[in-house]
Write a structure and sequence with these properties.
The protein has 435 residues and is mostly helical. It has 18 helices and no strands. The radius of gyration is 21 Å and the shape is globular. It starts with a helix and ends in a 6-residue tail after the last helix.
Length: 435
């Protein structure tokens, strides 16, 4: 979000669309390469027998596999694609995917160790630093997508090397049994992982397919108002998941899940309301005046509450080592959501596509809540999530009716800030904000 206001104005519409599509490919590909191993690493770390060694060996296996596959895929694409600009852009995105996968699995070690600063530094390197490298390259060398993504890979490579220094992996042979167990736990999550990323970012592919790169670029410009909440919740989930998985070997798992669930519901609702309220002013900065895209940005944060519920339920399922349902539940929801999204993806009313996304994530959260409730009855505070979803839906609907002007943006942002301050005051008075 910090880099986009500049890069979107330096690149033409087609070049920006290619960069945006590369960013989507990067995120989707990283999840495929990781194959659910980051959560398996965290669970292994807290194992009763030599957990840290097992976790580092699993990390080593993931790094070797990710880098090998990404190099082979990038080389193959570069040879087969006749358009050199597109070939360089997408090949660089594929290479960056393997590097990002190694960073994410290294972060699983860091979060297990409670090393928050090192974790955040790697996150910053994989996102802000790499995108800044791309921005500098198109400013100083050539304003095209190939230059942007080539510089992006350099930033990602530096981040991956830093990760190896912060948390050195071990060869998989050091813990063959643990590595095999991690793959057995993680591989059923692979179809789910691909499906969840397509739920997050596949709408961009639909717009690209039914319209063109310029339209996809417009859509990507507003995508930050879905990806931002997802990123914040995923970041916080590094703490929440670690607490749940650490408790998975004890007797207080249900109590921990309820406490974490209440926190997650509150944060998910607050993020949805705040992001929607900031959408009008945010889009003026990120892209400039564009009514349809701004309306989309107001609606996209509605996916946050469903995603928050899914995160808690998913952690419960990993804690219970019951991951087989991941193989079919999320892919099924992806198919249903895609079918519904086909029609709005062909028109200019982008907000309809955003609404489909929000409803699909609500279904995702509920589906996994049902599965987790069977494994650990009474653990997930569904009332808290329902209250957060209703409050955020009402706030987003009210904001959607406001015009996309600077004055309306100021009013909505000010009201959200006042509501947040009042809510925090009430929580503090009740002693619920200490966490």
């Amino acid at each position: 979000m910090l880099v986009q206001p500049f890069s979107i104005r330096i690149l033409d519409a087609t070049q920006w669309g290619r960069v945006g599509l590369s960013a989507v490919l990067l995120q989707v590909g990283q999840v495929v390469l990781s194959a659910g191993l980051p959560l398996a690493i965290t669970r292994a770390y807290f194992g009763p027998s030599d957990g840290p060694t097992h976790a580092r060996a699993i990390n080593g296996a993931n790094i070797i596999l990710s880098l090998t596959l990404s190099v082979l895929a990038a080389a193959g694409y570069f040879v087969l694609e006749p358009n050199r600009d597109i070939a360089i852009t997408i090949s660089c995105a594929i290479l960056a995917t393997g590097l990002l996968s190694s960073v994410v699995s290294t972060q699983a070690i860091l979060r297990s160790q409670g090393r928050a600063l090192a974790f955040v530094l790697l996150s910053g390197g994989a996102s802000l630093v790499s995108h800044l490298a791309g921005l500098l390259a198109i400013s100083l060398i050539s304003p095209d997508s190939a230059t942007y993504m080539a510089a992006f890979v350099v930033g990602m490579l530096a981040t991956a090397i830093a990760g190896l220094a912060l948390a050195p992996p071990l060869w998989p042979s050091k813990a063959k049994k643990a590595v095999g167990s991690a793959f057995r736990l993680g591989l059923p999550v692979l179809p789910h992982s691909l499906a969840i990323m397509l739920l997050m970012q596949g709408d961009t592919f639909l717009v690209q397919h039914f319209q063109d790169s310029e339209s996809a670029g417009r859509y990507v410009a507003a995508a930050a108002f879905a990806l931002g909440p997802f990123a914040i919740l995923s970041g916080l989930n590094n703490v929440w998941t670690a607490r749940i998985l650490e408790a998975s070997h004890g007797e207080h798992l249900g109590k921990i899940v309820r406490k974490v669930g209440n926190q997650t519901a509150l944060v998910g609702g607050a993020i949805a309301i705040g992001a929607s309220a900031a959408a009008t002013l945010g889009m003026l900065v990120l892209k400039g005046e564009d009514h349809q895209v701004t309306q989309l940005a107001k609606v996209l944060p509605g996916a946050a509450c469903g995603y928050a519920l899914y995160l808690v339920a998913m952690s419960v399922m990993f804690a219970r080592q019951k991951t087989s349902a991941f193989t079919w539940v999320t892919p099924l929801l992806l198919v249903v959501g895609t079918v519904v999204a086909v029609v709005p993806a062909q028109g200019e009313q982008y907000w309809l596509l955003g609404a489909v996304k929000a409803v699909t994530f609500a279904g995702l959260g509920m589906a996994y809540c049902v599965l987790a409730a069977r494994m650990l009855p009474g653990s997930i505070p569904l009332r808290s999530f329902a209250a957060a979803a209703m409050a955020s839906t009402a706030a987003i609907a009210a904001n959607f009716l406001l015009p996309t002007t600077v004055s309306a943006g100021i009013v909505s942002a000010a009201l959200a800030a006042a509501a947040a301050a009042a809510g925090f005051f009430v929580l503090r008075k009740r002693g619920l904000a200490s966490w």
